[in-house]
C-alpha cells in the first residue's frame, strides 16, 4: 500500500472487526459481552430490515452468528489479504454498519447506542475514499512517467537528426573537395 494512513486505517479496522465479531460468535473469551449480544440480537431481530419486503425473519441466533462471522471474515481479509478483495470486505462491513445504525434508529435507541455504528461507518467510508485517492495518485504518477519517456524519445530523435544533418554537411563538403582534389591531381601529373 502506498499510503501510511490507508495502511493504519485498514489494519485498525480489520483488528476491530475481528475482535467485535468474535463477541457475537463465542462466549469463550468475554461471556458477559456475548450474553449482552445474544439479548441485543433478540431485540434487533424484531426489526429485521428485509422483513417488510420478504416477509421472512431469521432466527436471532442465526442472525447474530451470520453478522459475527461476516465481521470476523471481512476483518481478517482487511488485515491479511492484499488486493481488491479488501475493497469488497470494506463494502460488506460498511453495509453491516449502516444496517446497525438503521436498526438502532428504528428501535428508537439513544444516540449512544447508535454512535459506534456511525463512527465505524464513517471510518469505513474514509478508508474507501483514501484508497480511491491513492489509486488515482498512482495512476497520475504512471501517466506522468509515460509522456516523459516519449519526450525522451523525441529528444533522442532530435539528436539523431542533428547528427545526420552534420554528417550530410560533412558529406557535401567532401564532395566539393573531391573535384578540386581531382583537378590538383591532374595538374601534378
Automatic annotation (TrEMBL):
<comment type="similarity">
    <text>Belongs to the DoxX family.</text>
</comment>
<dbReference type="GO" id="GO:0031410">
    <property type="term" value="C:cytoplasmic vesicle"/>
</dbReference>
<feature type="transmembrane region" description="Helical">
    <location>
        <begin position="88"/>
        <end position="107"/>
    </location>
</feature>
<feature type="transmembrane region" description="Helical">
    <location>
        <begin position="63"/>
        <end position="81"/>
    </location>
</feature>
<dbReference type="GO" id="GO:0005778">
    <property type="term" value="C:peroxisomal membrane"/>
</dbReference>
<dbReference type="InterPro" id="IPR040399">
    <property type="entry name" value="TMEM35A/B"/>
</dbReference>
<keyword id="KW-0256">Endoplasmic reticulum</keyword>
<dbReference type="GO" id="GO:0005789">
    <property type="term" value="C:endoplasmic reticulum membrane"/>
</dbReference>
<dbReference type="GO" id="GO:2000010">
    <property type="term" value="P:positive regulation of protein localization to cell surface"/>
</dbReference>
<feature type="compositionally biased region" description="Basic and acidic residues">
    <location>
        <begin position="140"/>
        <end position="156"/>
    </location>
</feature>
<keyword id="KW-1133">Transmembrane helix</keyword>
<keyword id="KW-0472">Membrane</keyword>
<keyword id="KW-0143">Chaperone</keyword>
<dbReference type="GO" id="GO:0051131">
    <property type="term" value="P:chaperone-mediated protein complex assembly"/>
</dbReference>
<feature type="compositionally biased region" description="Basic and acidic residues">
    <location>
        <begin position="174"/>
        <end position="189"/>
    </location>
</feature>
<protein>
    <recommendedName>
        <fullName>Novel acetylcholine receptor chaperone</fullName>
    </recommendedName>
</protein>
<dbReference type="Pfam" id="PF13564">
    <property type="entry name" value="DoxX_2"/>
</dbReference>
<keyword id="KW-0576">Peroxisome</keyword>
<keyword id="KW-0968">Cytoplasmic vesicle</keyword>
<keyword id="KW-0812">Transmembrane</keyword>
<feature type="compositionally biased region" description="Acidic residues">
    <location>
        <begin position="157"/>
        <end position="173"/>
    </location>
</feature>
<feature type="region of interest" description="Disordered">
    <location>
        <begin position="140"/>
        <end position="189"/>
    </location>
</feature>
<feature type="transmembrane region" description="Helical">
    <location>
        <begin position="113"/>
        <end position="130"/>
    </location>
</feature>
<dbReference type="InterPro" id="IPR032808">
    <property type="entry name" value="DoxX"/>
</dbReference>
Amino acid at each position: 500500500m502506498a499510503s501510511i494512513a490507508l495502511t493504519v486505517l485498514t489494519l485498525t479496522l480489520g483488528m476491530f472487526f475481528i475482535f467485535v465479531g468474535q463477541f457475537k460468535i463465542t462466549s469463550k473469551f468475554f461471556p458477559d459481552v456475548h450474553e449482552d449480544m445474544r439479548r441485543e440480537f433478540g431485540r434487533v431481530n424484531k426489526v429485521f430490515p428485509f422483513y417488510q419486503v420478504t416477509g421472512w425473519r431469521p432466527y436471532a441466533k442465526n442472525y447474530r452468528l451470520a453478522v459475527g462471522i461476516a465481521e470476523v471474515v471481512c476483518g481478517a481479509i482487511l488485515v491479511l489479504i492484499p488486493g481488491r478483495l479488501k475493497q469488497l470486505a470494506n463494502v460488506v462491513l460498511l453495509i453491516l454498519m449502516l444496517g446497525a445504525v438503521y436498526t438502532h434508529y428504528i428501535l428508537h435507541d439513544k444516540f449512544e447506542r447508535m454512535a459506534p455504528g456511525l463512527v465505524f461507518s464513517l471510518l469505513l467510508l474514509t478508508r474507501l475514499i483514501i484508497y480511491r485517492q491513492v489509486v488515482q495518485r498512482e495512476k497520475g504518477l504512471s501517466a506522468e512517467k509515460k509522456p516523459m519517456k516519449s519526450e525522451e524519445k523525441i529528444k533522442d530523435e532530435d539528436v539523431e537528426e542533428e547528427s545526420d544533418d552534420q554528417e550530410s554537411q560533412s558529406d557535401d563538403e567532401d564532395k566539393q573537395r573531391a573535384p578540386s582534389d581531382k583537378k590538383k591531381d591532374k595538374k601534378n601529373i
